[in-house]
Design goal:
CATH architecture of the largest domain: 2-Layer Sandwich
Oligomer: single chain
Strand order of the largest sheet: 2-1-5-4-3
CATH class of the largest domain: Alpha Beta
Largest sheet: 5 strands, antiparallel
Number of domains: 3
CATH superfamily of the largest domain: GAF domain
Number of strands: 11
Length: about 425
């Protein structure tokens, strides 16, 4: 983050953009311009307010069950004096941008209520526009947002800095820590401070939870094109093709033949077994011959895969827990037939369970996610159950989606005629 931005120039740029223009650079930073575009695509109203989704009873139960509850004593210890002395707020949100704790200076708390910056409100970027906690979990990186860089005008009197917090063993995004206040926060030190708090929270979680067994493989492949594998204390980021191989083998612990593996990995029937063997040889060199075996091809360790965890929780009826683990589609950029089938099956099962359950909070978690923002099935289900106070933006989004689908169908008809 550089020097404090020119607020008047940013407001002019924001007004021009929300009137149909493009954000000029400068004064708009590239990160902010891209966030504005995502906010507009998600049909966030520049003059709207965040929706409060959890009442006190539901919020208390949600907090108690969330992994970040264990880190709150450390977060408070590090931030209480900073927030009180500086008249700031400290907020902690989940991976969906829902605020779970908002604490700090009493005057700042009162002012924040006017824009629904309160515990239980959803501040994910696709619901509330550009803001530090919502954008931090959207991008999974530390973010500072100053004054008129916020997409919504009621928030432009504030400055905020947020950093994501991850599970120290699996790397899964748990949420973010945020500092929100006035212009005094428009300084690089604010972002550095909140990053240090996030790292301290992760260290505390690591102390409280033991690492997985050394003889097991931990595989993270949801919401990422390059899978992350943890093995014997090593953290390995796999290439796209190696990610597909490991995902397919994780689903087939009994092993598969080379011929079958070819059909699961390649759309192109002309790919030869020599090509596959070369890929497997490189992967074996990365993992070790004692991990990747042949005849048949298999992983000689127990694999704890995030997509299997989702399926198990869903199968036991723990839909909320399944969504908590689901970080996005499985290897979303993969066209490998075996991966595509697994990806579509898992997403379809989750969607069906969500619609069947009809829980407005869970439906909103999916609808406001990067993979659910264009899902009309879930938006229609949400429109049926959302409380009246939050129905207008949902209906607006649904009408826009229906218009896009109708326009797309019309274009297809014209091409076919």
């Amino acid at each position: 983050m550089g020097p404090e931005p020119d607020t008047r120039a940013l407001r002019r740029a924001h007004d021009a953009f929300t009137s149909g223009g493009e954000p000029p650079r400068p004064p708009v930073r590239a990160l902010v311009a891209e966030s504005w575009r995502r906010s507009a695509r998600a049909r966030v109203s520049p003059d709207g307010a965040a929706c409060v989704e959890l009442d006190e009873q539901d919020l208390a139960a949600y907090r108690e069950a969330h992994p970040l509850a264990a880190a709150m004593p450390v977060i408070r210890e590090l931030t209480d004096a900073y927030a009180t002395d500086g008249e700031h707020l400290v907020a902690v949100c989940d991976a969906s941008g829902r605020l779970m704790w908002v604490e700090g200076h009493s005057g700042a708390l009162r002012r924040a209520r006017s824009m629904n910056f309160v515990a239980g409100a959803r501040w994910t970027e696709s619901a509330a526009g550009t803001n530090a906690p919502g954008t931090a979990v959207s991008l999974d990186r530390p973010v500072q947002v100053c004054s008129a860089e916020h997409f919504r005008r009621p928030v432009q009197a504030w400055t905020c800095a947020a950093a994501p917090v991850h599970d120290p063993h699996s790397g899964r995004l748990l949420g973010a820590v945020d500092i929100t206040g006035g212009d005094r926060l428009a300084h690089p030190h604010s972002l550095a401070f909140v990053q240090a708090v996030a790292r301290a929270a992760e260290s505390q979680l690591a102390l409280l939870a033991p690492p997985p067994a050394a003889d097991r493989i931990r595989l993270e492949a949801l919401g990422r094109n390059e899978a992350l594998l943890r093995l014997e204390g090593r953290r390995v980021r796999l290439s796209r093709r190696h990610s597909e191989i490991v995902v397919v083998l994780a689903r087939r612990p009994e092993g598969v033949s080379g011929e079958e593996l070819l059909t699961l990995l390649y759309e192109d029937a002309s790919v030869t077994p020599v090509t596959l063997r070369a890929e497997l040889s490189r992967l074996r060199g990365l993992l070790g011959a004692d991990v990747l075996r042949s005849r048949p091809y298999r992983l000689a360790r127990t694999v704890d895969a995030d997509f299997d965890s989702v399926a198990r929780k869903l199968g036991s009826g723990a839909l909320s827990a399944a969504l908590g683990v689901y970080a996005g589609p499985l290897l979303p950029g993969s066209c490998a037939p075996g991966v595509v089938r697994l990806r579509e099956r898992l997403a379809g099962q989750l969607r069906a369970a969500l619609v069947d359950r009809g829980d407005p909070r869970l439906l909103a978690d999916w609808a406001y996610s990067a993979w659910g923002e264009d899902d009309p099935v879930v938006w229609r289900a949400l429109a049926r159950v959302v409380p009246a106070s939050g129905r207008a933006p949902v209906l607006d989004r649904l009408r826009a989606l229906d218009a896009e689908l109708s326009a797309g169908a019309t274009r297809l008809q014209r091409r076919g005629s």
